[in-house]
Structure formats: structure tokens, C-alpha cells
Amino acid sequence: MTCPVCDSETHVYDSRTKLDSVYRRRKCLSCDYKFTTIEIDRDFYENLIDLKDKFLCELNSDFQRVVDDAMERVRTGIKGVYGLQNGG
Length: 88
Description:
Layout: E1 10-18, E2 21-28, E3 34-40, H1 42-76
Antiparallel strand pairs: 1-2, 2-3
């Protein structure tokens, strides 16, 4: 791998495994710049993407219910969209 600063070769001086990924600390042989790379298992990555999509879909669904409820309160004349009582 090349250095993101000077494009010279780098070497790995530390490597650690966490969950389904490998963290590697690298150092440039020319400018001594240090950086971290992360290698993630493809299946693990795809599962993360699926979970993110599912979470966002559920979040949007919950948000839509809140908006629908608020609109219904406005339509029926109830003042209490944000927990306020009538006259408050």
C-alpha cells in the first residue's frame, strides 16, 4: 500500500483483529506518516448495510406515523400536537 501523503511505500507495524475486521497501523517508509487501514469481511459489511437499511425504513415508518397523527389532530381541531392541552 502507498502513503496517502507522498505516495511512497508503507509497512505495517501493528495489526489487530476486532469482530469481523482487521485494523492495521501503517507507516510511510519515506515521510514517516502514520495511518490506519481497516479490512472488513464482505459478508459482515453486507449485513451492516442490510441492518442500516432496515433501521432507516423503520425510522421513516415511525416518523410517518407521528406526522399522520399530528395531521389528524389538526384536522379534528385538537390542540395538542406536541403534548399541549386545549388552551395551552
